Input
Amino acid sequence: MSQKTITITIDESGNSSIDLAGFADNSCSRVFEDFRGGDRVKTERMKNSFYNAKQTEDQVRTGR
Amino acid sequence: MSKYGTLETEIKEQKYLIAALAEMGYHPEVHLDGAPLIGYEGHERPERAHVIVRRRELDSASNDIGFAKAADGRYAAQLSEYDQAIGFDQKWLNRIRQLYKEKQTIAAAKSKGYVFKGREVVKTEQGERIQLRFAVR
Output
């Protein structure tokens, strides 16, 4: 199982981004909130790895 | 699941604002009920603030720089036009926001049990970009 990692990048203007990787469960929303720190969310999206993992899961489930 | 998001830093926690200013070499005063800023001539200005960097720590002709807490909990900087023109400008404020966010992030991660894995600073044309990495215990 890949390690769950969190990368915070704080840009030159003091704003930041949160990149969560290796999460194969629903805990990423809680982790995202832990690191939000009361800041205003500008954008938020699931990454391709989430959809790839979900597709694999669906394929296994349907036997394809 | 994996997720990506962008955030706009809002300065709401006084202790990290003070820590950020301290890292920049200042000794900010804290006033629970706010205190007036002092102008370059030594007179009180109409503006009041809760966190104040006194002019003696700035330039010889500077006014105090204040951070006033608004009703929504956010701290807003109060800078004179003169001080903005001599370098206490948006870039200076951005550096405070950056240090604030770094300190807040590290403290929050520690308190919630995440493992600090490293800090990297990338120099860019606009300044520095800070990258912090953590892992789930």
About this structure: The mean pLDDT of chain B is 96.
